[in-house]
Amino acid sequence: MRAIFLFLVVIVLQTGCSQENVSKMPITEFNQELLDNAILVDVRTPEEFGEGHLENAKNINWYDQNFAENFSTVDKDKTIYVYCKMGGRSAKAQEKLKSLGFNHVVNLEGGYDAVKNKK
């Protein structure tokens, strides 16, 4: 009986961890091939975006009053990769998008600063 309980605990923990890993990844592991059925969103300000951004990124400013409305035409089953300068705004954006019913929102951890530092 103890072995069965331990087995179930391990399964639950693995399932929980694997789902968590799906919703975030280091920005340095991101590649353009992931955009086949997804969109890439930079949630920094237009000024920050203008100073450099990832290829094929769409700029939707987190601080814009109409942030949520900018996603009204996006399919809720489409994967959305979000990033910012260091990871704080993109984590907030991820939570907001999930609350709006988007099923696959991936926070690219480390932000654009991590990309610049890798170069």
UniProtKB/TrEMBL annotation:
Signal peptide: none annotated. Residues 34-119 form the Rhodanese domain. SMART domains: RHOD. Gene3D superfamilies: Rhodanese-like domain. InterPro entries: Rhodanese-like_dom (IPR001763), Rhodanese-like_dom_sf (IPR036873), Thiosulfate_ST/Rhodanese-like (IPR052367). This is Rhodanese-like domain-containing protein. SUPFAM superfamilies: Rhodanese/Cell cycle control phosphatase.
